[in-house]
Design goal:
Elements: E1 2-6, E2 16-22, E3 29-30, E4 35-40, E5 45-49, E6 54-58, E7 65-67, E8 71-76, H1 121-130, H2 148-153, H3 194-209, E9 212-220, H4 222-239, H5 246-259, E10 266-268, E11 271-273, E12 280-282, E13 284-286, E14 289-291, E15 294-295, H6 303-318, H7 324-327, E16 332-336, E17 355-359, E18 362-369, E19 372-386, H8 392-407, H9 410-414
Parallel strand pairs: 12-16, 16-17
Antiparallel strand pairs: 1-8, 2-4, 2-7, 3-6, 4-5, 6-8, 9-19, 10-11, 12-15, 13-14, 17-19, 18-19
Helix pairs in contact: 5-6, 5-8
Length: 416
């Protein structure tokens, strides 16, 4: 019997998807639970597996936009797996090796390429006057050198050339710089994936629909770095994950969100929707584009729990396993451009959220501390926020709260 391959439902709000690629070919035998197709939706990529063993028939091609529930292929479950055979490739005949040409003399007499270097002035004068080709003259002198008698008795091969007139030195020629073929007009157009189109739509909508402002501050990371260097080995041994900086910033952000609830809220129509939970989105760069999966109920996690959650989300993003549930429900986001070397930036809101925290590169800078200049590990941080719901005072207070928590990590333990 034939079993239809249908586009699965991947979310309540998703009505269509794009076939990203088929991992199997039409007419190929597939096994149950084997991935046969990759779907790209507005939010994530979804793998479609074979429900039974059989021969696959494909009815829709990669790049086609298909409706949820549409039939895109079938599996003939009555077909049997073919016996594995290997086609023996005919051995290629090796090309015969060409023998190297031996050095031979054109005439009956042996040639002496070194004779010119052993000519005396008298011999050289006779050679020039008679226009002799000394390569065909047998030398009778010591070591095969040409004597005056050898060149006088040798048959003339050409009339003696007249002395050429002195020529003016030629003007130096300008050698043009070698250039490859022109690539003007060499363009390539690639259709945007559903995820990339959705990202573009959301970013443009965020710019158009929100009154976005950005406030900046700088954080002294010296104390956090000392803690990290002191405990990173024990932390890795106990939890199996590296002790990074994101865990500290997530915990600091939660304390700041508790202080300024408007940053954890957003606008719905003419109402403000406040959230009494803390789902922190972590921006993850993947091959399919930027995604912001969420750490659900991050306030219930320790720093180790946050680091483990971030590692799992990063792994899922790299492997294309981020689910719809991972992407939904975030209330506040953090993006770290410092991992790519960014020193300062203004992040864009992750709509419908009202704020996003941007982290940047840690850099040694001279800082005035108690009237003295010290070299400290500093980081610029940026908070982009929707001014319709968050006032400037609240945004600055929020960022100062994060600064205080990170610069004094003990406050995260005491939650003060």
């Amino acid at each position: 019997m034939k079993l239809d391959v249908k586009v699965p439902a991947v979310g309540e709000s998703i009505t269509e998807a794009v076939i990203g690629s088929w991992t199997k070919k039409s007419g190929e035998f597939v096994k149950m639970n084997e991935v046969i197709m990759l779907l790209e939706t507005d939010k994530a990529s979804v793998e479609v597996i074979a429900e039974k063993d059989g021969v696959l028939t494909i009815n829709a091609q990669a790049g086609d936009t298909v409706k949820i529930g549409a039939t895109v292929g079938s599996i003939d479950t009555d077909a049997k797996a073919p016996a594995s055979t290997e086609a023996a490739a005919p051995a290629k005949a090796a090309a015969p090796t060409q023998p190297a040409a031996g050095a031979t003399s054109g005439g009956g007499k042996p040639t002496h390429p070194e004779l010119q270097a052993h000519q005396s002035p008298a011999v050289q004068r006779v050679v020039n006057e008679r226009g002799l080709d000394v390569s065909n003259v047998q030398g009778t002198g010591l070591g095969g050198r040409l004597t005056k008698g050898d060149v006088l008795n040798a048959p003339a091969t050409a009339p003696a050339p007249s002395a050429p007139a002195a020529k003016a030195p030629a003007a130096p020629t300008v050698t043009p710089v070698p250039r490859g073929p022109s690539k003007q007009g060499d363009i390539q157009r690639v259709k945007m994936t559903s995820i990339r189109k959705k990202i573009a739509e959301k970013l443009v909508a965020a710019q158009h629909n929100a009154a976005i402002l950005t406030t900046f501050n700088e954080i002294d990371m010296t104390n956090v770095i000392e803690i990290r260097n002191k405990y990173k080995d024990k932390f890795k041994e106990k939890y199996g994950v590296n002790l990074g900086f994101n865990g500290f910033f997530v915990k600091a952000a939660i304390e700041a969100l508790k202080t300024i609830p408007a940053v954890n809220a957003w606008i719905v129509g003419d109402e403000i929707e406040y959230h009494n939970y803390y789902n922190i989105g972590i921006a993850v760069s993947t091959e399919r584009g930027l995604m912001v999966p969420n750490i659900k109920d991050a306030d219930n996690l320790s720093v180790a729990g946050v680091e483990l959650a971030i590692r799992d989300l990063a792994t899922k993003g790299r492997d294309g396993k981020i689910s719809i549930d991972d992407l939904n429900g975030g209330t506040f986001s953090i993006t770290n451009g410092g991992v790519f070397g960014s020193l300062l930036s203004t992040p864009i809101l992750n709509a419908p959220q009202s704020a996003i925290l941007g982290l940047h590169k840690i850099q040694e800078r001279p800082v005035a501390i108690n009237g003295k200049v010290e070299i400290r590990q500093m980081m610029y941080v940026a908070l982009s926020y929707d001014h319709r719901i968050i006032d400037g005072k609240e945004a600055v207070t929020f960022l100062v709260k994060i600064k205080e928590c990170v610069e004094n990590p003990e406050r995260l333990l005491l939650e003060v």
